[in-house]
Specification:
The structure holds two protein chains of two kinds. Chain A is an alpha/beta fold. Chain A has helices spanning 35-42, 64-70, 95-100, 117-130, 147-164, 175-181, and strands at 2-9, 12-19, 24-28, 49-54, 57-58, 71-74, 135-139, 167-171, 184-189, 192-196. Helix content of chain B is 76%, strand content 0%. Classes of the chains: A alpha/beta, B mainly alpha.
Chain lengths: 198, 265
């Protein structure tokens, strides 16, 4: 369970929200409304006021790296620092997941430079999943994907959520996608979340 | 063999080179003539002054005076490190980190050389201590300013990568490890190049000076080797310390990358 308590960062908040384990919540809002800022604050990448709890354990009470390992932010644009894809996967990757995202078995042997934007985005998702986070903060994880790949990502994330009782906080611009994946939807505007009708 | 004394006329002739260069700069509109003339004037004045200071200092070998001069050299070097950076750490940090690392490495190496290798009496004999410190400090300063400049620019341009690594649960050391390694390497390159080319491509300035002053070449060479090793040690360890401290300062207590601690370029 993820709980935001009076969380405030720059022009977002203070806002409070509780998301159950195994639940997927979608956040929508205009560009610049602070959706990404909200996720960055939850991942403790930006200074913020208020507190965030994961299963009643406060963010500030844990080492920052451990917090981010369990509350992992997947940024909108994937970033790579080594030459080969595999170097970003210290413990390898579940072959079933590669398959689930229509990536070939040898994808880890690729050089990052030869991957398309969409392939990188899917690989970045797998990289984040390999850390087995309890909470995934997803910043438009299908932003660079075609409809078919987007569906694969949605179903992989749904499986992950069910198997591990993971909490998903998902930013999406796509109304229909939001309706498909989320049990609750919120609109972020003027720094506040308003529940949207399902 | 004795030193041939240079007359003011000799120096004036050499100064014509600078004037000619300034004229070229003006002609080609390089825009550096002012800087060039100012730098030449500064170096003339500064060197004449230090010549006088050293003359007095050599006549009165006194630990207090040697320490004072060394302190002034260190502070000026610390200021120079700051001035050479495009995005320096704000507040007292930029100055403190550079100065502290130069102090730790350059002073330790100099004292080590004076006490264990050259074994002068007293160990702070200014004729050895000040020139030695000057050479080591100058090179360490170059290494540290190159290193810090590279680190802060790197952190700025690779912000997204570093934050992605943090977001995946890596700690700050891992997240900036690549930049840190690369940065220390950059700081070390000048001295590695200097050592590699020494004697074949270039005759190092110190050795040349000693030979001009009448020292037998083999003796001058031995001093040059000593000085090169000292410089390499001072630069390498100094850069490593400075980059390590600065990298730490780029992150806060929650291991967030804090580029707001850098001055905007």
């Amino acid at each position: 369970m993820l709980r935001l308590d009076q969380l405030a960062t720059r022009h977002v908040g203070p806002l409070s929200l509780t998301i159950a384990a195994g639940e997927c919540v979608c956040v929508q809002g205009a560009s610049g409304s602070g959706k990404s800022l909200l996720l960055r604050a939850i991942a403790d990448l930006d200074p913020h006021d208020g507190e965030i709890y994961l299963n009643d354990l406060a963010c500030s009470a844990q080492p920052a790296a451990r917090w981010r390992a369990s509350v992992t932010l997947l940024m909108a644009e994937s970033q790579w620092w080594a030459e080969r894809v595999g170097e970003h996967f210290p413990v390898g990757v579940d072959p079933a997941w590669l398959d689930g995202l229509a990536l070939p078995k040898d994808a880890l042997d690729w050089t990052v430079a030869r991957c398309s934007t969409g392939e990188r985005q899917r690989l970045a998702l797998l990289r984040a999943l390999m850390g087995q986070p309890a909470v995934l903060l997803l910043d438009e994880p299908t932003g660079n994907l075609d409809e078919q790949s987007a569906r694969l990502v949605e179903s992989l994330l749904a499986d992950y959520r069910r198997c591990r009782q993971a909490t998903l906080l998902w930013i999406s611009h796509d109304e229909r996608q939001a309706a498909r994946i989320a049990s609750r939807r919120f609109l972020l505007s003027d720094g506040q979340l308003t529940a949207l009708p399902q | 063999m004795s030193v041939i004394v240079l007359s003011p006329l000799d120096l004036s002739l050499a100064a014509l080179l600078i004037l000619a260069l300034a004229a070229l700069s003006r002609h080609l509109r390089l825009g550096v003539e002012r800087q060039l003339l100012l730098a030449a004037a500064r170096s003339t004045l500064q060197l004449l002054l230090i010549g006088l200071v050293l003359k007095v200092l050599f006549d009165h070998a006194n630990l207090l005076w040697v320490t004072l001069i060394a302190g002034v050299m260190l502070l000026v070097a610390g200021r120079e490190v700051i001035a050479r950076q495009k995005r320096r750490l704000l507040g007292v940090w930029g100055f403190t980190i550079g100065t502290l690392s130069m102090f730790v490495s350059a002073f330790a190496v100099t004292v080590l050389a004076l006490t264990c290798m050259i074994s002068t009496t007293p160990w702070y004999a200014p004729q050895y201590a000040i020139p030695l410190l000057g050479m080591i400090l100058g090179n360490t300063m170059n290494g540290i300013s190159l290193g810090l400049d590279r680190l802060t620019q790197d952190a700025f341009s690779k912000r997204a990568v570093i934050e992605t690594r943090l977001a995946l649960g890596q700690d700050w050391r891992q997240a900036i490890a690549d930049s840190r390694r690369e940065t220390i390497r950059v700081g070390l390159i000048p001295i590695i190049n200097a050592m590699a080319a020494a004697g074949i491509v270039s005759l190092p300035g110190m050795m040349t000076g000693q030979i001009l002053a009448g020292t037998p070449p083999v003796e001058a060479v031995k001093y040059q080797i000593l000085v090169m090793f000292l410089i390499a040690g001072g630069t390498g360890f100094g850069t490593a310390v400075a980059v390590g401290l600065a990298a730490r300062r780029l992150f806060d207590e929650r291991q967030r990358l804090r580029l707001d601690r850098l001055r905007n370029a």
